[in-house]
Amino acid sequence: MRNKTAFLMVVLGLLGVCAQAQEKKLSKEEAITLALENNYGINVAKNEVEVAGNNKGILNSGYLPTLTGTAGANYGRDDSVIEFPGQFNEDGSPRGDVELDKAEAQSYSSALTARYTLFDGLGRFYNYKKLKEQYQLTELQARETIENTIVQLFSVYYEIARLTENEYVLGKTLNISKDRYKRAQYAFEYGQSTKLDVLNAQVDITNDSINVLNTRQELSNAKRDLNVLLSQDLNMLYTVDTLVTFIPKIKLEAFVEQAKINNVSVLQTERSLTINSYDIKVQRSGYLPTIGLSGAYGWNLNQSAQSAFFPGTNTDNTSFDLGASLTWNLFDGGGTTVRVKNARIAYENQELLKKQIEIEVDRDIRNAMANYENKLVIHGIQEQNVITNQNNFERSKEQFQLGRITSIEFRQAQINLLNAQTNKNLAKYDAKLAELQLLQLTGQLLNVEL
């Protein structure tokens, strides 16, 4: 038992030295920067914004004319023999055959055609506005992705911070157990205590050592989780900032009051509602005529082969054409009417969805605020509990050294202090995560220093 205890102590010491020698500190700001630059989900969202930006450009608006160029060439060659059976020349001799060898014909053509739509029932106009709204909606969707990633990032970041502080607390507990083991060993050697006290101390060292090892393993796993979010090497080693500050309540209340104009879900429904309104106008354009202009320039060259009766000819032709057209679909079987009705229904559904989301967001904000305030209170209670248990432990330590309480009673005071400290760590980071969730709901997560 004594050899196993010594082995655990050596292993823990080596692990601690190796970790501290290779790890650097990763601040919250650096973590956010790495996530914004490297996170795959965020980069995909950025690319989608870029696509939406391309779609809302003038090149995709339909306002520019079209210019089409065509060109062609043909080549033909004939080798033929023309016979005149039963026909005679003027001198009475039979008329001979006429041979056409390598009779070649070529034709070349090219044309440029330009078309421009002057008026299409305003469908192009409203579709262009719709694409701009779609771009803003995509930006909001990318913002939502970033906010969700930041919350996920800090849930892992603060879990690392919590485990780091727990590791420190467990390490101090282990050192206390080691010191108690040495005292029990000396007391036993001098006949001042029984072997039971030594065995109890060894058992406590083993349990504390295992707790430290398990916490370090959880810490390593959490760091790998953070590396995945940051899209970096899974073996990257670092420490995190365990300092937590809370936003003043008066500032949070101001954020809550402005939540409906800043919440990303509400803003998305407003953009979608605008897009649906443009959809109705785009479909209505089917009732109106389309007016267009066209122009063409063409060039043709034909070189025909000679025949038995006609010599070869060359024809060079150049043409210019200008035109205007009016197209009015007076009745399309009712398709336009159906599309307009459906667009109006989609708009009504979007209005209902907006009202639903506004109610849900209001509920979520109220719940998040109450949850945050509750966790702050719990954090304060846990801080006071640590002070109480720290005082109790110090008194128990004095009494134990004087031999007035047993090792079991001292161990209980030690465990109470350990539980109070780990519970305080948990309460602190739970309160901070609740604050981040409240900031996300109020639309201020990306506007404050975390």
TrEMBL record:
- In which domain of life is the source organism classified? Bacteria
InterPro entries xref list: OMP_efflux, TolC-like
Compartments, record wording: Cell outer membrane
Signal sequence, start to end: 1-21
Note the coiled coil stretches, chain numbering.
Answer: none
Q: Name one Pfam family in it.
A: OEP
Record keywords: Cell outer membrane, Membrane, Signal, Transmembrane, Transmembrane beta strand, Transport
- Report the family membership: Belongs to the outer membrane factor (OMF) (TC 1.B.17) family.
According to UniProt, the name of this protein is TolC family protein
Source species, please? Answer: Maribacter aquimaris
